[in-house]
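FW: tagging you since you asked about this chain on Friday. Here's the raw sequence from the shared folder, copied in full. Didn't touch anything.
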Amino acid sequence: MTVEKLTIRRRGIYLLPNLFTTGALFSGFYAITSAMNAHYDISVVAIFVAMILDGLDGRVARLTNTQSEFGAQYDSLSDMVSFAVAPALVMYLWAFSSLGKVGLFAAFVHTAGGALRLARFNTQLTSADKRYFQGLPSPAAAAILAGFIWLCLEHGWDIEALKYVAIILTITTGLLMVSNFRYSSFKEIDLKGKVPFFVAIAVMLAIAFVMAQPQTMLFLLFLGYAISGPLVTFIMRRRKKLQSRKG
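HL: got it, structure written out here
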């Protein structure tokens, strides 16, 4: 009688990157609960904190060589809560609750756009061009809505006068997430390489501008990024047409 040795594969998850993902998930959850208590200023800050943590988890995983399929799926679920559900619900509670079905529709368009954007991103991980995102990334879409709310709260603007602007903004971010517009991923930037001294000064000044007026600057930065997608796509298509004519 022979005794066969069974090799038991260790099962588990990497703790470090998933801690950042859990932090991003909690921030999105906290944004929703804060909005339910009418603390909208806390809600928008929580969404931006979720963005920071979401940006760190992937980088930490690559630096520590702890990437996993579990981590990728967990990150998508966290993004769904923090950047699709949370900003839509915060916007609905802040501006759309008096609009009935119209407000509900606008909030759902953003939520559904975020869900479809994440699902498409997951299916194109191996085939997509790493230099570009197809459709507006969900964190950027969430930042536009959170930035708009933060800007209005900071300046004391009456939401009754701006609620239709908020509706257009919310629906537009949802549609941009499922669009075919190409957005730069900035992955070609080499953060480890050396740069000229004036680049370091420019980065320092940019951070100073953002810190001086975070409400205005963050909203404008992400709004500009959202507009860059259609512009970049139009320029690339025009170049291809010119090259085909020359050929």
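FW: The first strand starts at residue 132 and ends at 134.
HL: agreed, and The beta strands are 132-134, 182-184.
FW: great, closing this out.
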